Amino acid sequence: MRTSFVTSILALVLSSAPALPAFGQEIDRTDTAETAPPLPSPRERAATPIPQGDPSWSPALSWDEPFFPNSQHDPAIPTPEAILGQAAGSRVASHDEVLAAYRLWASASGRMKLFPYGRTHEGRQLVYAVITSPENHARLDEWLASRFEGDVPAERDEQAEADALGDKPIVCWMGYGIHGDEPSATDAALILGWHLVAGTSEDVTGLLDDMVIVIDPCLNPDGRERIGTQLRQMSGYVTNTDYAAMQRGRWPYGRGNHYLIDMNRDWVTGVAPETRGRWRAIRQFEPQVLVDGHEMGPLDTFLFYPQSPAYHPQLPGTLNGWQKRFANDQATAFDRYQWAYYTREWADGWFPGYSDAWASLNGAIGLLYEQARTLGQPVKRASGEVVSYRESVHGQLVASVANLATARRHRASILADFRRARDEAESGGENADEAFVVLPGDKPERLAVLVDVLDGQGMEYSFTGGGTLTGAVGRFGDTVDSLELPAGSLVVPVAQKQGRLVRAYFEFDPHLPTETLERERRELERNDSSLMYDVTAWNIGMAYDLSCYWGTPSGLTEGAAPVDPGTRGSSGRTAYAWVVDGASDRAPRFAARALEMGVQIHLGDRPFTAAGRSFPRFSLLVRSHENGPSVARLVEDAARWAGVELVALDTGRSPDESPDLGGQHFTLLARPRVALLGGEGSSTGSFGHLWHHLDVRLGMPHTILEGLSGDLRRYNVIVAPEGMASELRSGQLRDWVRGGGTLIAVGSAVNGVLGEEGLSDVVRHRDALDEVGSYRAAARRALAAGTAPIDAEGLWSGELEPAGADFDVDEDEAGALPGGEDRDTWMRRFGPSGVILRAHVDDEHWVTAGAGSDEMPVFFEGSTALLAKDSCAVRFTAAADLRLSGLLWPEARERIGLSAYLTVERVGAGQVVLFAADPVFRGYYLGTARLLSNALVYGPGMGTRTAVPR
User: Fold this and answer.
1) Three-state secondary-structure class, residue 470
2) CB of 193 closer than 8 Å to CB of 128
3) Phi-psi region of 309 (alpha: psi -120 to 50; beta: other; left: phi over 0)
4) pLDDT digits (tens, 9 = 90+) for 46-94
């Protein structure tokens, strides 16, 4: 029954399609004048659905080349055409259609088994399909368990490798569409899955005898459905070939997942649930080849590996050679269609957080390709050539088939190199005794997140009961010959199967090769353009702001992980008050929840002692008498939800000289009512990072506004992501801030509140060239404040000199810098693409609660250097000590040194909080994320003047 139905549907589709040209016949793809079918009349349009995808009536706007001209397929297996109702690859298939097709094929063929591996934030299922011969399926578990048995020849010898490895199949993991608005990859996966299940000729059966092919057909269902909905909603009866048309989507498009996280840069820490699921799934198979299908700009052609330099030093030494071999075969396949392509021009191998980089650090051959994007419909290029959506799908498909053929042809050598790469990692190579070590401290929540990352990536680690770390080097460059490790220290050794990942993700400061620096410098100086494709720093220990070291451990004894205190305390009884330790990153989460429940909370500005314990500055206090009779239940519910320890107190009297709990050192907080700005013009990445922090990390109610509109009095906190500077120049916003609002601006959005008509006294470096010296002198005074010992004898004798002489304006800094504006313009072009810098923390400011020390690592990118004298809560250190990790040219170092990272200014009854760079970049900079949490939750009470209710 099913076969006859499918056959009839397929016959109907084929009968209405134009005749296919002979294989190899040149196709005219220019936008020639052509007679289009008449448009439906207005009455007919009401009953005629708008067509989706390529217009089948126009050879110039569609692509009719057969995908597999030399292959035969089992007619009993339903085709993609039958499932989609039109030519495969001619429109964007929905995620539901992709799942339905794969489920149907898995039930119809013994070649495919389908496995779920997770769900997205929106609840869509993530699946992978294992495709191989039925015989290989029967022995797959046995083979996976024994894949590392047997010796591999030390030297490369294809025959010896083949003899040693026998008939072990090679595993290829094929991933598609990690960026949702790059849809042709997933549509290619749809067709590839059918081809491998239905193919009956040797080009398919031979592959399946020698290979296990795992297809992850849609890595980002939420993003795909977002852009797919936009494409359907903006479609019309008339085809539009303009690459810039709104018919191809609108903000926020579909690149990221639900929270707009870029999952192709998420492999370091796995913020997205999709990434966490893939970690587990891929590690089950430990593939030798991993393919990652992408799209790029619509006016481009097709890019595939090998990568451009620089290459991360932890990548296997054989990787580039294999990428060249795969590229040669792929180029041959593309030449048959006279398609344009290129390699090596961008997409370098330095950042280790891409899909293919993660695979390569696991010993595999990571491959990526980028097809010029059409977004589900034909696009006219600058030359006049028109590329249909189906042709772009075909390009992805040809690339995948070529890659699989290459992998099959070199099966034994690829397997052998994979084994050698894993063995080399397990031996540890040079400095094999080294380890990455995290000391226990006041950030147990961040340590727990780190352990979760280690578990997810299969990294080996242990907690020690004690030991010694020799040759210890800390995250701030501090060195200790011998460091005693306290109980509970986390030790991650280099000598393990995942040793390449350990070094790549935890090394403090890998250095780019000199030749790369020379190329980058030349490009910047001549063309004001960077060759670096991504950030140049990413260290997890620094991002989490943990007390971490590299060194050689010895004398380690067995220990246990530090215990997360969790929730304990009052057990529902009435108490005088309850306290939450302010050092905990979950304290703002608790406060946000409790304030939303109507609980009155105070923030202490001094350390205090209660219940036999010492609590740090900025701990939270809930007094029973200020709340209703159900307060015990409310605070326990909030504490349980936030995961904090709740300490019940029987008295407000301090047992020592610290403040009593009813005094003026405790400020009443106000319930945050948060609005997050978004919409066209804002950075989708910055917006998504902030949104994810509000919704997932903090669990705070918030409103997303498309720009500033309506009655702003409904909110007391407004957050502006990168790109929203123009929105912040509104008079309505200025009145709102002066009336008691807290404005938080991030990155380039700060420009909207600077200048003569702005809300802030902070200035940009470029706008204060005549005063740079005085700002730097003020910064040096601020950094030294309270650090000098008092000369009491000199004070009483009158011989003590006034302070400040050492911080007067240097002659070199007095007035305009040499070259003035022209020099500053020149220096701005060297702004870093992503580095980690050292910053000084004002630990007495409420916005730095939980920072834990007077220095912290801070992520920074771009060329905006902010100058401030009196409002700086976190300030970059002097230029000489500034760089911790990543590429920072001396011009950028000079401009950024002693500039402001985080400022808080009172404006009328309100305040303005400025972050010079994204504090929650890519969702994993937990150190600076705490600063943002404080601003969001504590800001309305701590930094503003709130009217007392009548």
Assistant:
1) strand
2) no
3) beta
4) 668 899 999 988 888 889 999 999 999 999 999 999 999 999 999 999 9
**C-alpha closest to that of 361 among 319, 398, 402:** 319
Rounded Cα–Cα distance for residues 79 and 190 (Å): 10
Burial environment of residue 950 by CB neighbours within 10 A (0 to 12, 13 to 18, 19 or more): exposed
Three-state SS for 204-250 is: HHHHHHHEEEEEECCCCHHHHHHHHHHHHHCCCCCCCCCCCCHHHCC
CA distance 320 to 348: 12
What does each C-alpha distance from 64 to 24, 25, 29, 69, 886 come to in angstroms?
Answer: 12, 11, 11, 12, 49
d(CA 904, CA 893) in angstroms, rounded, equals: 24
The CA distance from 832 to 540, in Å, is 19
Number of Cβ within a 10 Å radius of residue 41: 9
pLDDT digit string, tens, across residues 381-434: 999 999 999 999 999 999 999 999 999 999 999 999 999 999 999 999 888 999
Dist. CA 540–CA 507, nearest whole Å: 9
| CA pair distance 346, 363, nearest whole angstrom | 23
CA 604 to CA 564: how far, in whole Å? 23
Tokens of 817: 């810098």
User: Could you give all domains of the chain from N- to C-terminal order, each with its CATH number?
Assistant: 70-424 (3.40.630.10), 430-513+524-558 (no CATH), 577-668 (no CATH), 674-784+808-942 (3.40.50.880)
Instruction: With residue 746 as reference, give the H or E element that holds it.
Output: strand 742-746
Burial tier of 163 (Cβ tally within 10 Å: 0-12, 13-18, 19+): exposed
